[in-house]
Design brief:
326 residues; TIM Barrel; Bacteriocin As-48, Chain A; 2 domains; eight-stranded parallel barrel; 8 strands; 12% strand; globular
Amino acid sequence: MHAQPPQPRILLAPMEGLLDHTLRDMLTRVGGVDLCVSEFIRVTNTVLPRRAFVRVAPELLNHSRTVAGVPVRVQLLGSDPDYLAANAAALAELQPAGIDLNFGCPAKTVNQHRGGAVLLDEPELVGQIVAAVRRAVPAHIPVSAKMRLGYNDDRRAEDCALAIEAAGASDLVVHARTKAHGYRPPAYWDRIADLRQQVRLPMVANGEIWTLADALRCRAVTGCERLMIGRGMVADPGLALAIALHDAAVDGRATHSGVSWDQIVGLLRLFWQGVALRVAPRHRAGRLKQWLNYLRRVYPQAQQAFDQLRLLNDPAKIEQWLTAQG
C-alpha cells in the first residue's frame, strides 16, 4: 500500500443543479470541509470570458475561498483537449485553488455532447485532456480529475485511472459507480480498492456516504483516508464535522452531537438571502424546498417544514415562514 496524506481530508462534491455557490457557503460554515469543487463549467469550441468562470464560482473573487475560508477548485467539462487547455489557462489567471476535470457526469444531454462519463470509454482521450490542461496551467495550481468507474460497465476503470495518473494529475476522485448505475445504491467501494492496487496517484473515495458509519466503512473498504461527500452533506450538514472530530478524537470516538435544528434554521435563512441575490423570484421557493427535501432524511422538523411549504411559491410568504421560525 502506498502512503496516504498525513491529514485526512473531506471534500465537498460538485452537484449540478444542487450544490452551487450558495449551498457551498452554508455547508462550509458548519466546519469539517477541507476543500470544495464547483459545479462543472462546460467547455465547447470557444474560450470563455472571465464572467463565465465567476458566475459558477464567485469564490474566485475571494481568493478562491468560501466565506468560511475553504478553498474551491473549479471544475471544467468537455472533450477537446486544446479548448480545455485554453480555458484552463484563462481560468488560471483568476488564481483558482485548483482546476478539476469532469469525467463523471451521468447526465444524458452532457454525455450526448461527449462530456462527462461517456469519455470513460476513451481512456486515451481522457489522458490527453489531463495532459493538455496540466501543460497549460502554472505548476502551483493543482489539476485533479473526478471519474466514475465507467460508462456502461467498469472494464476500463483501471485504464482511465492509469491514464489520468500518467498525464500528471495531482489527485483523483473516484465515484464508485458507473454511469449506468446512476445514483442507485450500492456504491462499489471495493473497485476503488482495486484501482489503488495499480495507481499510486492520491485517491479520494466518493459515493453513498450518508453517515459517519458509512465514512468509516468506505475508508476500510477502499483504503482511502480522503473522502468526497455530496448528497450526504446536503442531507446532514454536520457530517463532515462529525468525521473530522472523530479523526481528531484521542480515543477514536466522535464527540460531535450533530447540528441542531435551530442551527439549520439559521442556515436556511442565510441560504434564502443568498438565493434571493442570484435566483429569479419564481425559482427561489423551489431551491429552498430542494434542500429541505434532503434534510428530511435526518431532521423530522424538515419534514414538517417541507409539508408546510410544499404548495407555497410566493417569496414573500416563504420569508414570512422563515421569520416565524424560532
